[in-house]
């Protein structure tokens, strides 16, 4: 079972989930699962279409916003912000470790004008470090004001 870590009142991050984890997500009020892993990243990952099928069968929305080793782009941040804005309940983002999901959430929150300090504190409370993207968070938050 994957460990869901709380980033905010509405956002959870997790390492790779399994099909069985989808029912746990539903029990925790998750209405949207966001997959931040590119397909074929590792031999042991559950393919996104399997997670998507399980999510949809459980009545949970699903979106894939893959983040590769090349980093984050504006379209990915925009896609995350749009997905979060459309969600009507808890959102679960996952990748290999939960870090990329957390970083993408942090960038989307900063773009929405949330305080980078508050975002960094929430991520740290969940066990994630956003310092690699702190400059981008500050720039996005500054542009939002």
Automatic annotation (TrEMBL):
Pfam families: BLH_phosphatase. Coiled coil: none annotated. One of its GO terms (molecular function) is hydrolase activity. Residues 4-111 form the Beta-lactamase hydrolase-like protein phosphatase-like domain. This is TIGR01244 family phosphatase. InterPro entries: BLH_phosphatase-like, Prot-tyrosine_phosphatase-like.
């Amino acid at each position: 079972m994957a460990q869901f870590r709380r980033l905010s009142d509405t956002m959870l991050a997790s390492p790779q989930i399994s099909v069985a984890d989808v029912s746990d997500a539903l029990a925790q009020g998750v209405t949207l699962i966001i997959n931040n892993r590119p397909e074929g990243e590792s031999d042991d990952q559950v393919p996104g279409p399997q997670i998507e099928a399980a999510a949809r069968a459980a009545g949970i929305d699903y979106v894939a916003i893959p983040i590769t080793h090349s980093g984050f782009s504006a379209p990915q941040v925009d896609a995350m912000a749009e997905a979060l804005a459309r969600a009507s309940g808890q959102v679960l983002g996952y990748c290999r470790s939960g870090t990329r999901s957390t970083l993408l959430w942090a960038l989307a929150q900063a773009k929405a004008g949330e305080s980078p300090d508050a975002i960094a504190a929430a991520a740290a409370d969940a066990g994630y470090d956003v310092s690699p993207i702190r400059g981008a968070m500050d720039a996005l938050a500054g542009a939002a004001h």
